[in-house]
Design a protein that fits this description.
Length: 354
């Protein structure tokens, strides 16, 4: 454990990636404040392992509420803010971009404004220690053709309301570093998967539908490629970037696990046929349905993570095969986590622009 970043405020800490970060930091003995509005995607059950430990506290608050964030900074006195709170689902951003503009852009601006005020009020030693880590996505870079990888200097070309809102937030963070000197680090990651993933996203949706024998929707021809990273490997990368990354720099994070969507879905079907065969359902790949494509669907994402590996020594522990097997088994063993989510989302199709 490093001696820096003993007090960490994590926005979005009740979400998928945020909760993995919080669980990791609390296990390490750091003091963590989870700051989360608890939208449909936020879930305190994802923090059950650490929720009542002395190292963890929780505040239900909106990142657009500057006063609430100011009070949280003043009372908790963090030396690190890790900002993960966001509206995160591309399909929902197509149906309703307003929440994405509010949370991802205005919310990030609000945090920067208050973090700058807080940082300016710290003594010199505390100012030197303080960092604001903005967590973002590879979707800001747009889409790749058959070749090439996203690097940190790839031009931004976001294509969905979600990615445009994240791109805007990245630019704001960068501006607060260059203009006001706020000590920031940034990271852009590829698709995460693993435990506690809300079942609106491809992998958990496929696992739960396959378990019930329900249709498995694959957008378009299923040929779009994503670069999959196991969520706990991302959490480890985020800890390194937050504590050791160079100020003002951004780091790309990705698992070098490019897969076509149709192959991801078929892999899940094969694991489930082996682990939970069901004679009534039969072979699960017969449940696959090619459905109307996502509007503006990016063809391919793939990350060059060599900066993170070379500078900070990050090495992911999971490849896609080990990670997906672990993930399927986690969902099979943790119905108590996902059953209650049916009341929030019934797995109906989202994001078909009218
Ligand atoms: P998620 O949707 O699972 O969780 C988001 C969390 O933020 C939830 O707990 C929600 O309650 C909270 N939140 C939303 N609006 C809020 C607000 N206004 N105020 C306070 N809290 C609010 O998202 P995730 O998949 O864990 O993503 C976390 C971050 O990582 C996001 O910034 C996302 O853009 C980024 N990211 C995600 C992925 C991925 O594959 N999931 C990949 C790269 C980057
Ligand atoms: O690349 C990082 C991004 O990955 C993050 O910034 C986002 O927050 C995160 O949600 C994820 O975005 P995607 O749109 O890639 O994830 P999703 O799971 O929604 O979709 C993955 C791929 O699968 C995508 O090409 C669309 C497709 N898809 C998705 C769903 C939900 C289907 O074919 N069928 C589906 O039912």
């Amino acid at each position: 454990m490093t001696s820096i970043a003993q007090r960490v405020l994590v926005t979005g800490g009740a979400g998928f990636i945020g909760s993995a970060v919080v669980r990791r930091l609390v296990r390490q003995g750091r003091q963590v404040l989870t700051y989360d509005k608890l939208t449909y995607a936020g879930n305190l059950a994802s923090l059950a392992e650490v929720h009542n430990l002395p190292g963890h506290s929780f505040l239900q608050a909106d990142i657009c509420d500057g006063r609430a964030f100011r009070e949280a900074l003043e009372s908790f006195r963090p030396d690190l803010v890790m900002h993960l709170a966001a509206e995160s689902h591309v399909d929902r951003s197509i149906d309703g971009p307003g929440d994405f503009i509010a949370t991802n852009i205005v919310g990030t601006y609000t945090l920067l404004d208050e973090a700058l005020r807080y940082w300016r009020g710290l003594d010199a030693a505390a100012q030197k220690r303080f960092r604001f880590h903005h967590i973002s996505t590879d979707e800001v870079f747009g889409t790749l053709g058959e070749d090439g990888l996203f690097r940190e200097d790839t031009p931004y070309q976001p294509n969905s309301p979600y990615s445009a809102s994240k791109a805007a937030s990245d630019h704001l963070v960068r501006a607060w570093f260059h203009t006001y000197g706020l000590p920031v680090v940034m990271s852009n990651c590829s698709n995460n998967y693993g435990p506690y993933h809300f079942p609106e996203k491809l992998i958990p949706l496929t696992i739960l539908n396959a378990l019930e024998g329900a249709p498995l929707p694959v957008y378009g021809k299923g040929e779009n490629v994503r670069d999959w990273l196991y969520v706990e490997d991302h959490a480890a990368a985020l800890e390194l970037i937050a504590t050791r990354g160079r100020l003002g720099e951004s780091y790309n994070v990705g698992g070098s696990n490019e897969r076509r969507n149709i192959d991801v879905v078929r892999t899940i079907c094969a694991i489930m046929d082996r682990v939970v065969p069901d004679a009534k359902i039969g072979p699960r790949d017969a449940l696959i349905r090619f459905v109307t494509d996502r509007p503006g669907h990016d063809a391919r994402y793939a990350i060059d993570a060599s900066k993170l590996k070379t500078e900070l020594g990050w090495v992911p522990e999971h490849d896609f095969e080990s990670g997906i097997e672990k993930t399927v088994r986690w969902y099979l063993d943790n119905a108590a986590w996902w059953e209650p989510l049916k009341a929030r989302y019934n797995r109906a199709r989202l994001g078909v622009a009218k």
